[in-house]
Design a protein that fits this description.
The complex is a heterodimer.
Chain A: H1 4-16, H2 21-26, E1 34-38, E2 54-57, H3 62-72, E3 80-85, H4 86-98, E4 101-108, E5 119-126
Chain B: H1 9-23, E1 28-29, H2 32-36, E2 56-58, H3 63-76, E3 80-83, E4 102-105, E5 112-116, E6 121-124, H4 130-139, E7 144-145, H5 156-161, E8 179-186, E9 191-193, E10 226-234, E11 236-237, E12 241-249, H6 255-267, E13 276-278, H7 296-306, E14 311-319, H8 321-335, E15 342-350, H9 355-360, E16 390-397, H10 401-418, E17 424-429, E18 436-443, H11 448-467, E19 471-474, H12 480-486, H13 489-505
Parallel strand pairs in B: 2-4, 3-4
Antiparallel strand pairs in B: 1-2, 5-6, 6-10, 7-11, 8-9, 8-10, 12-14, 12-15, 13-14, 16-18, 16-19, 17-18
Helix pairs in contact in B: 1-3, 10-11
The complex binds flavin-adenine dinucleotide.
Chain lengths: 133, 529
């Protein structure tokens, strides 16, 4: 189900997101179709990075879901990287599973927790044949 | 893999192979990584041998495939556990009640089949989420509202079948109350329609719920009797405006009359939105967890010292501006005699919401799906981290001042005695009209030792509540038998009648075994002791 092309994409991405949120963002996360940043952990504004569209939110994933992912995840493809709170990742992972996608990389970051919420970097990629590109 | 009890590997494999040929290979999930997604992430049995696991999951695309899968299962006595979107977190998630069941995942059946603007109703398939329906209504230019629970990612059908609730108008926010017309695949694979759906050519399936004879919709609420493949709902015509207000009173003893008048006003249709009763003076530490109600003189002293109201009743109105302003005026007149009473208009908005209002309002109050609830913990609002999880304890209590005070004191005292943490505690939830439902969110752990303690404590609380006449309206699978046992009138006649119906309609016991304490005959032995 996971194609070789996908694998190459993700292995390039995963180490880039494996450090602290600043460093993770500073390194070019090549291979992603979009990057999702949780402003609670990564407050400074960022334009699209290395031509990768950056979506920002602050804890509540409703807008990101309704305006972007709900549509994107209906079609094949679309590898999404993120640096978010563990609470937001829980919601996104549940939605991703429902849409034939999986968290293929997940790293707890060194930044301090906010009210018990850990920052995490991750990659969600298509998994089910109905959405693998 | 957890095989269904009493089933040989050969029969099971044969059944799965047959199901594969029905739905297509890619829609059968039997690998550990896939099955992991059907675990209950808030399970109080997490990681223990008793945790409920699916043996496989099957995702059919249409009613015919559902029928064929059910027939295949029935021929071989393979237990099935239908889910719609499987987001029943706090009440069991996507996991079956009986380990080894095959989850029948209806997520691919996600069509909005009909929206009738003039009848203010819709007909949907089980995989339609609140987000899907909201998008459909907005993009089609509909003037209709839907009512949504806090997390908007669940399905209209799954939520209603478990009797879920939302936050807008009476008659809509109790989601089961808004159901009109059900289609279900029965255990023998036959298709059944309730109400006017049983009359070929009828155009009133989503208008007149009862049809003729006994109203059989109830067969499918929290039940083990069918796979629901279509469901009709009443929808609310978008109002012109919405008004939120509150009435604050400052004496312990005001609670009884505060609620009596609130009941009279709601049942007399003076207001249509969801009411609420809280205690500002007892919620100073945590706005979503009322502390124990003290003796009257102590509470009145706290009020005098802090200036916080003893009780607050909130009122919500939806309708034409002129009408709802007049209704609010009437509400104020009815409470004017309370000493020191304080009236507040907390928000008034014209609809549809402006983009600025949309940012500011609590979306579910306007029928707008949201996922915001999963981030409230990080705003310091209760100690809530969704990746750890919680269960809901939700008991039906009398809608009166005494009801709130008694339930508050018993729950607070017993939970403290038992060492049961509550990070949210609201004794007077009114999603369902005519009674209060006491809601407590109990944190769950990924640690068997702590969960064992939690389970024992919750079971004890279920018994204590029952001794006061309070029963849960809904609960996680680990407590379903205990909760059903508590409904014990006439030697548990309720359960026994449910079992008789189960045996008649599903003699091989293949559907949703064990849900809400109703087990098929072959799994009942030993439980009756
Ligand atoms: C933080 C938080 C807040 C919550 N707030 C609310 C709230 O405000 N209101 C509320 O109601 N709930 C609430 N919940 C509980 C739950 O998340 C929702 O009720 C959710 O909508 C239920 O999941 P679902 O819609 O995916 O239903 P499903 O999980 O699909 O279905 C629920 C159950 O119904 C049965 N079922 C489903 N579909 C079928 C079918 N087609 N045929 C036969 N049987 C079927 C199954 O037994 C299934 O387990 C909350 C949960 C959390 C974690």
């Amino acid at each position: 189900m996971i194609t070789r092309r996908d694998l190459i994409k993700w292995t390039a991405v995963a180490p880039a997101l494996a450090t602290g949120s600043q460093a993770a963002f500073a390194r070019a996360p090549q291979g992603l179709d979009a990057l999702l940043l949780d402003e609670r952990f990564s407050p400074e504004p960022a334009a699209d990075y290395a031509r990768i569209p950056v979506m920002r939110f602050a804890g509540d994933v409703t807008g990101v879901w309704y305006d972007h992912l709900d549509r994107r995840w209906r079609d094949p493809g679309y590898v999404l990287g993120g640096i978010t709170g563990s609470d937001a990742l829980f919601v996104l992972e549940t939605l991703a599973n429902h849409h034939g996608r999986r968290v293929v990389s997940r790293t707890a970051l060194a930044e301090p927790n906010i009210d018990g919420v850990r920052p995490v970097s991750w990659v969600i990629a298509p998994h089910h044949p109905s959405v693998t590109a | 893999m957890a095989l269904p009890p009493g089933l040989s590997e050969v029969t099971f494999a044969d059944g799965i192979a047959e199901m594969r040929s029905i739905v297509g290979n890619e829609w059968v999930f039997d690998q550990p990584a896939d099955l992991n997604t059907y675990r209950d992430f808030y399970s109080v049995l997490w990681g223990e041998p008793e945790e409920k696991h699916a043996s496989a999951a099957i995702a059919p695309a249409n009613v015919e495939e559902v029928q064929a899968v059910v027939r295949t299962a029935n021929e071989r006595s393979i237990p099935l556990y239908p889910i719609s979107t499987g987001r029943n977190l706090g009440y069991g998630g996507a996991a079956p009640v009986l380990s080894g069941s095959v989850v029948l995942d209806l997520k691919r059946m996600n069509k909005v089949l009909d929206v009738n603007e003039s009848n203010c109703s819709c007909l949907v398939e089980p995989g339609v989420s609140y987000f899907d329906m909201y998008r459909h209504l907005r993009e089609s230019g509909s003037k209709l509202w839907l009512d949504v629970p806090d997390p908007g990612w669940g399905s209209m059908v799954g939520n209603a079948l478990d009797s879920g609730g939302g936050y807008t108008v009476g008659g809509y926010r109790g989601h089961w109350e808004a159901v009109c017309g059900i289609e279900a695949v029965m255990a023998d694979g036959e298709l059944f329609r309730t109400g006017m759906g049983a009359l070929p050519g009828s155009e009133t399936w989503q208008q007149y719920r009862m049809g003729i004879g006994p109203c059989l919709d109830g067969l499918f609420r929290q039940s083990t009797l069918g796979v629901v493949t279509k469901m009709g709902f009443y929808l609310f015509p978008e109002p012109e405006a919405a008004l939120s207000t509150s009435v604050e009173v400052f004496r312990f003893e005001d609670i009884e009359e505060l609620i009596e008048i609130m009941n009279e006003l709601e049942y007399g249709n003076v207001f249509n939105g969801m009411p609420g009763v809280s205690s500002p003076v007892l919620s100073q530490e945590n706005p979503i967890a009322m502390s124990i109600v003290p003796e009257p003189d102590v509470m009145n002293r706290m009020v005098a010292e802090t200036g916080h109201a003893a009780w607050r009743a909130s009122f919500n109105f939806y309708g034409p501006e002129k009408v709802i302003r007049a209704q609010w005026e009437h509400v104020q007149e009815r409470y004017a005699h309370f000493p020191g009473v304080k009236f507040t208009e907390s928000s008034f908005v014209k609809l549809p919401l402006s983009p600025e209002d949309l940012e500011r309002v609590q979306k579910p109050r306007f029928g707008i799906p949201s996922l915001d609830i999963f981030s409230v913990g990080s705003r310091g609002y209760g100690n809530f981290n969704p990746s750890d999880g919680h269960i809901w304890f939700s008991a039906v209590i009398p809608r009166s001042g005494k009801g709130i005070i008694d339930a508050n004191r018993v729950m607070r005292r017993e939970c403290e005695r038992l060492g049961l943490d509550l990070f949210m505690f609201v004794p007077s939830v009114t999603c369902w009209t005519r009674s209060f439902v006491l809601f407590a969110a109990v944190p769950v752990y990924k640690d068997p030792e702590r969960n064992r303690h939690l389970r024992d404590a919750v079971k004890e609380v279920i018994g204590i509540c029952a001794s006061h006449g309070w029963g849960e309206y809904r609960c996680p699978p680990a407590f379903m038998d205990d909760v059903m046992d508590a409904y014990s009138f006439n030697d548990n006649k309720l359960r026994r009648v449910n079992e008789q119906i189960k045996d008649a309609l599903d003699p091989n016991g293949i559907l949703s075994a064990g849900r809400y304490g109703v087990w098929p005959q072959h799994l009942r032995e030993g439980r009756e002791a």
